[in-house]
Design goal:
Order of helices and strands of chain A: HHHEEHHHH
Largest sheet of chain A: 2 strands, antiparallel
Oligomer: homodimer
Structural class of chain A: mainly alpha
Shape of chain A: elongated
Largest interface: A-B, 29 and 29 residues
Low-confidence stretches of chain A: none
Radius of gyration of chain A: 17 Å
Helix content of chain A: over 70%
Number of helices of chain A: 7
Strand order of the largest sheet of chain A: 1-2
DNA sequence: AAAAAATGTTAGAATAATATAACTTTAAAA
DNA sequence: TTTTAAAGTTATATTATTCTAACATTTTTT
């Protein structure tokens, strides 16, 4: 069990988590709009996620995350947040571009690299010598 | 024209470029071994790449890169190199893990973010204040 | 040079992700 | 409350990537 999800399924889970956080509920329509796919594609993905025990979805009803599904959704969201912060705050990448990059890389960064990146960002926040040099990077 | 390649096709191109650099020639067998796929899968991918004008592949012959194909292969390899350096030299990630991460992220990092990352790595190399703090990160 | 081994190719099947089109159910309007 | 609109579902098809198995060609051995 616990086999790695595909990038597509991870995106569905993450989107569901985001919608629940934002609107309290997640509907098929909102998921398809967010991911730029058709309702039928969402349905197929939801069936797969339900089979894996990551969501609950009664016919014609809202979509809910199981505890396990929520854990995965939160994990991916966290990776996105870390990458986004690194790209924007430290590298000085434009926010839109940084977000797109983060949304793609969040599926491939390893836990080890993520941990090092988090540690690095923390260091930068604390050490003023870092910050000064980083300001220069922002302009380039 | 110039439509974005799939991650799979990018990997084939990059591998072909690497093999040519290493062995002067690239054979189906070596590509399949490198990418852990079957010869038949390689053949199908080679047909697609040949259709796109990125490689030259005569039946039962070696695989060659066209100038356009070489450009793409080099570009991906460059992205991998930059990511690998960042992960190992600045974040202090274990080399094997860093390489795996770089090999996946090389397909998704944008040119903008890559440019900022290159600039950042250059800065780190020059500024000693950076280096000191980074040594600490390596231990964590 | 003939036989055997290695390499390369093609045909057919499987999985994953998506789409379109037809249909069903639920929600909203008249 | 009936009709209409919106949302959700299912069936069928397409594309991409891979596989296995059968077949072809090339290379190596004997």
């Amino acid at each position: 069990m616990n086999e790695k999800l595909t990038e597509s399924l991870e995106n569905y889970l993450e989107t569901i988590g985001m919608l629940i956080k934002k609107n309290k509920i997640a509907r098929v329509k909102d998921i398809s709009k967010e991911l730029n796919v058709k309702n039928s594609s969402v349905n197929i993905a939801l069936n797969v996620l339900a089979d894996k025990g990551l969501i609950i979805h009664e016919k014609y009803g809202y979509v809910e995350l199981t505890p396990e599904g929520k854990k995965i959704a939160d994990d991916i969201q966290h990776k996105e947040d870390v990458l986004l912060r690194f790209f924007t705050e430290i590298l000085g990448v434009d926010k839109d571009i940084a977000l797109k990059d983060a949304c793609r890389m969040e599926h491939t960064i390893s836990d080890e690299t993520l941990a090092k990146l988090i540690f690095f960002i923390g260091k930068v926040d604390k050490e003023s010598s870092f910050k000064k040099a980083i300001q220069k990077n922002m302009k380039g």
